[in-house]
Amino acid sequence: MVPTYQEAENIEPFLRAVRAAVPDLDVLIVDDNSPDGTGDIAERLGAELGGVEVLHRPGKAGLGAAYRHGFSRALADGYDVIAQMDADLSHDPEVLPDLLGGISQGADVVVGSRYVPGGNVPNWTWIRRRLSSWGNAYARWMLRLRMKDATTAFRAYRAEALRRIDIAGTRANGYLFQIETAYRISEAGLTISEIPITFEDRVAGNSKMAVFRTMAETELRVTWWGLSLRAPTLSGRLRSTGPGRYLESRVRPSGLPPDDD
Predict the structure, then answer these.
(1) What is the spatial distance between Cα 176 and Cα 123, in angstroms, rounded to a whole number?
(2) 3-state class of 15 per DSSP?
(3) Using one digit for the tens of pLDDT, what is the confidence trace for 60-76?
(4) Strand order in 2-4's β-sheet?
(5) What is the pTM of this model?
(6) How far apart are CA 240 and CA 181, in angstroms?
(7) How many CA atoms lie within 13 A of 77 on its CB side?
(8) pLDDT: is 192 or 250 the higher one?
């Protein structure tokens, strides 16, 4: 399951690489009405390659919304194993057999991780690498996560695992969606396997993420979630303040303590 927006330059080599790596895999493209025609290109490639379906959404509604739509569709269609990845070739399709193999070996969730031995981000600057590593460590501590790479979008799930974490009930949008699902996975006690990946920055098209702004917003929300989890009385008091009301109006994963309201 692959959410797309403005990936016209990448979608053909991506789909061909996926088909070469796992010939019998079905691919679901969830396209948010890309103005560059990504969805139409995927339709054309699907007719040629087979096993490719394109969900054309009416507009750009956010990454989390696209994931929820795609996962819900895959579950409704009866698939037993559902993987997610990006279409910009930052996730190597040749790793897909390893991800799926981890499920066959008994894991509920298999994570393509940059932060286990063998994982790598060769094209990142030192500061971006340190910020991402620190952000993952901070989220892991604040939310008691049981995976080292909580922000990776390269994962495979048993269908039952997605049902257990109520994937349709997630509320985060954007890149925070990965942390919310990591929290739910950890809280549910699912069996997690992390395999090393090399994460390559895209070589075509433009990134949709403002790196430093996204990191700052993510850490702010993780802090709020962590306070709600670890210090519900304190977060209840903060909620009565203006900043607290603002933070509570933003997304918070269900399953955290309801504080004292």
Answers:
(1) 23
(2) helix
(3) 888 999 999 999 999 99
(4) 2-4, 27-31, 52-56
(5) 0.84
(6) 28
(7) 14
(8) 192
Q: Where exactly are the structural domains of the chain? A: 2-206
pLDDT of residue 245: 66
CA 154 distance to own-chain centroid: 7
More confident residue, 250 or 143: 143
The three-point CA angle 121-126-131 to 5° equals: 85
pLDDT at 88: 93
Tell the residue number behind the tokens 């304190």, with chain if given.
234
Where does 2-206 sit in CATH, by number? Answer: 3.90.550.10
- The pLDDT value given to residue 253: 47
Return the higher-pLDDT residue of 1 and 203: 1
Q: Give the Cβ contact number of residue 233 at 10 Å.
A: 10
Q: What angle do CA 102, 105, 108 make, to 5 degrees?
A: 65
The region of weakest confidence among 39-43, 124-128, 155-159, 189-193 is 124-128
For residue 187, count other CB atoms closer than 10 A to its CB.
18
254: β partners: 256
Contacts of 154 (CB under 8 A, 6+ apart): 84, 85, 86, 91, 95, 99, 111, 112, 197
**Residue 123 DSSP label:** T
Region class of 61: left (phi > 0), else alpha (psi between -120 and 50), else beta: alpha
How far is CA 172 from each of CA 45, 203, 220, rounded to the nearest angstrom? 31, 28, 14
Do 159 and 80 form a contact (C-beta atoms < 8 A)?
Answer: yes
Reported as type and span, the H/E element at residue 118 is: none
